[in-house]
Amino acid sequence: MAKGWMLAGALALASVAMGPAAAQDTSGLRKVGAEVLFWSQAQRDANFPHMEKIFPGHVVKARGKVRMLPAGKPLAVPDAEIDAFIASQNISGLIVLQDGKIRLERYARGYGREGRWTSFSVAKSFTSTLVGAAIKDGYIKSVDEPVTRYIPELAGSGYDGVTIAQLLTMTSGVRWNEDYTDAKSDVARMFLEAVPAGEDPTVYYMKKLPRETAPGSKWVYKTGETNLIGVLVMRATKKPLAEYLSEKVWRPYGMEQDGFWMVDPSGHEVSGCCLSVSLRDYARMGQLALEGGKGVVPANWFAESTRAHADIGVPGRGYGYQWWTYPESRFGAQGIFGQTIRVDPKTRTVIAVSAAADKASDRDYGVARTAFLDKLFAATAP
Questions:
Q1: Based on the number of CB atoms within 10 Å of its own CB, is 252 exposed (0-12), middle (13-18) or buried (19 or more)?
Q2: Tens digits of per-residue pLDDT, 315-341?
Q3: Which residues have a Cβ under 8 Å from the Cβ of 149 and sit 6 or more positions away?
């Protein structure tokens, strides 16, 4: 599921990097894009903190007063257990905030506080936040509006009658194949087709997809729908996503470092993927959500975003507005190769993880990661 998203993102990025002529060579482009998924461990360690050296993108400018993260009481978790987790999960960065104070911060794999690490699908939760910001700013009226109000090219397509909320929760009812092993899947094809001049590549592809079920009735993970959210926000605000993210989050909330957001063949940010952010700034994003985003989004935005709107077929878990929900009222953002933001409102704790796992997605890896994060949350309880 998530692996398919990265293939789509990589294909988009590769088409820009290779140029228009090479972009027509779809078999070669598919190979280049897929290589991101199958980099060696040495390549992941070298490239995940330096994606801006490989792919084109836009800078998310900080340039404001930095929100300090003071030191808190160290967590009572044995160093040996932390070391074992870092080693077994190929962790590059691990940070735990409680009440906005750092209770644990560790780096490995040549990474450090001054660096940035790629987000993969953790970026989806950042994009969702921009929808809330656009509503607060009056660019978007509400999530109950039809998508076609902002992307009129979708009129008459499977997205006719679909609301912004249904895009956010991936319950549009539009048919989609996210299988990255299938060369004919939607996620593999969406950036490979020639696009008429002046048309957005995401919209051009998505408007051809058929309706499968009634809107709101079924959850299916759809990379293309996160891309549509990005297009919608850009259309509504008339600003690049990187610029709007800087204006609404990076500068006012006090992010420490510039971010970097890769772009698709049209030069627009890949809104479901591919932000490069420092570990502390990932934690600040979790803290922003925990605190409710006052001044950034409407008062109830994060409460709505981080509750389960959709049943994903996993007991105790669900999907909100581009945030995953977990037992114990926890919520978070996640991406392939181990990228994680996990928030526990009960203990007012935020955990952020950057990693270079040896597989894009692995059930046992995920189970072990959650078990250790649960242990960290338990250590913050009174």
A1: middle
A2: 999 999 999 999 999 999 999 999 999
A3: none
Amino acid at 10: A
Distance between CA atoms of 58 and 44, rounded to whole angstroms?
21
Question: For the chain, what is the radius of gyration of the CA atoms?
Answer: 19
- Give the separation between CA 215 and CA 171, rounded to whole angstroms: 6
Parallel/antiparallel/unpaired status of strands 259-262 and 275-277: antiparallel
Q: How far apart are CA 247 and CA 11, in angstroms?
A: 29
| DSSP count for the chain of H helices, then E strands | 15, 12
**What is the strand order of the sheet 57-60 is part of?**
57-60, 259-262, 275-277, 117-118
Length of the chain as a residue count: 382
Interval 150-178: pLDDT, tens = 999 999 999 999 999 999 999 999 999 88
Closest CA to 325 of 299, 300, 311, 307: 307
pTM recorded for the entire structure = 0.92
Element (H, E) at 363: helix 363-380
